[in-house]
């Protein structure tokens, strides 16, 4: 009797394993849903649509971008985590919901390093430290002196509390030993407008949205937050070159899938994305967005996420940052 039961169980496992292998072999046999946890039109959405079109061509299936915005990217990321791990749901992760929010939201309904598998990092985007043109500073060192000598609190604009740009300012303050007042806005545009108008003297902002304002002379860029200078602004030094060694803050974007997604599908997705990033037309569009190609595979991307999470967790604790 026991032998017959074991045989039945073994046969069942064989059938299940055979069905799973067959499903992987025929993947994808239906459209793939690409979850973007932000509204249409931003950098995250634009990159997903650019790469998604090419991914659909390479895999022979439609890739449908679904925008599920809210709670700093948490809503869309949580939605993706809860989808079946069958390769038909991928999510665009970035620095916020993947590496910063676990430290800011005590009741976060997902754990990125447990619930998601990194597939490929696609792009990083540096930030710019910009100031009002009438501010009497032309370098980070001069800005530090200005802040220290100011008789009133010096504020800096950001697109919102808990964003990577908020933390970029906190990292600057702790690294330079200065005190700044955080002035959150509902997005980059109103913060940039108030910085140009002089209502707030300075701002950290993503390079794509600040670049043209700097080139047109409406804002002055003091430094870039990446490890190296940008060819789009070759005369703007890095924060490290400006006297803050080790300072580096870049937004980043990459593809992840729910934990449990078969390795064969992860590998195939990674290869397809790697090939897409090598396409000249894709590379040109990413550079035009102010981005830097960051072609990291699953393991390298996993290590990068872990390091970023540790970095921002330490800063959130040290600066005692809390959501309002």
Global shape: globular
Strand content: 15-25%
Parts with pLDDT < 50 across at least 5 consecutive residues: 2-7
* Termini Cα gap: 64 Å
Taking Cα atoms only, what radius of gyration do you get, to the nearest Å?
A: 22 Å
Number of helices, where a helix is a run of at least 4 consecutive DSSP H or I residues = 12
Major sheet details: 10 strands, mixed
How many β-strands, per DSSP?
10
Average pLDDT for all residues: 91
Summarize the amount of helix as a percent range: 40-55%
Which secondary-structure class do the elements indicate? alpha/beta
**Order of helical and strand elements:** HEHEHEHHEHEHEHEHEEHHEH
Concise structural overview:
It contains 12 helices and 10 strands.
Structure description:
With 324 residues, the protein is α/β, with parallel strands linked by helices. 47% of the residues lie in helices and 20% in strands. Strands 1, 2, 3, 4, 5, 6, 7, 8, 9 and 10 form a ten-stranded mixed β-sheet that branches. Strand 5, helix 7 and strand 6 (181-184) form a beta-alpha-beta unit. Helix 2 (43-59) packs across helix 10, helix 4 (95-104) runs parallel beside helix 12 (298-319) and helix 7 (164-176) crosses helix 12 (298-319).
């Amino acid at each position: 009797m026991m032998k017959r039961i074991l045989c039945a169980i073994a046969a069942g496992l064989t059938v299940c394993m055979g069905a799973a292998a067959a499903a992987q072999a025929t993947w994808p046999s239906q459209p793939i849903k690409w979850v973007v946890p932000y509204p249409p039109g931003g950098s995250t959405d634009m990159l997903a649509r650019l790469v998604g079109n090419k991914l659909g061509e390479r895999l022979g299936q439609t890739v449908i971008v679904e925008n599920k915005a809210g709670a700093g990217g948490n809503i869309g990321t949580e939605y993706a985590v809860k989808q079946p791990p069958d390769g038909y749901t991928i999510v665009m992760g970035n620095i916020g919901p993947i590496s910063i929010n676990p430290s800011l939201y005590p009741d976060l309904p997902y754990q990125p390093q447990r619930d998601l598998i990194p597939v490929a990092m696609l792009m990083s985007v540096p930030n710019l430290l910009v100031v009002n043109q009438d501010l009497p500073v032309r370098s980070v060192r001069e800005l530090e002196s200005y802040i220290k000598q100011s008789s009133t609190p010096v504020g800096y604009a950001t697109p919102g509390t808990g964003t990577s740009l908020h933390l970029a300012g906190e990292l600057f303050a702790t690294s330079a030993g200065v005190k700044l007042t955080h002035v959150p806005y509902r997005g980059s545009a109103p913060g940039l407008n108030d910085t140009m108008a002089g209502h707030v003297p300075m701002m950290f902002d993503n390079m794509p949205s600040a670049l043209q304002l700097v080139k047109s002379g409406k804002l002055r860029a003091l430094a870039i937050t990446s490890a190296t200078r940008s060819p789009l602004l070759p005369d703007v030094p890095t924060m490290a070159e400006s006297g803050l060694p080790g300072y580096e803050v870049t937004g980043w974007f990459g593809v992840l899938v729910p934990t449990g997604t078969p390795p064969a599908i992860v590998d195939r997705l990674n290869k397809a994305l790697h090939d897409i990033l090598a396409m000249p037309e894709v590379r040109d569009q990413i550079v035009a967005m102010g981005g830097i190609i960051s072609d990291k595979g699953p393991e390298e991307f996993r290590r990068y996420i872990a390091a970023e999470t540790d970095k921002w967790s330490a800063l959130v604790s040290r600066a005692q940052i809390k959501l309002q």
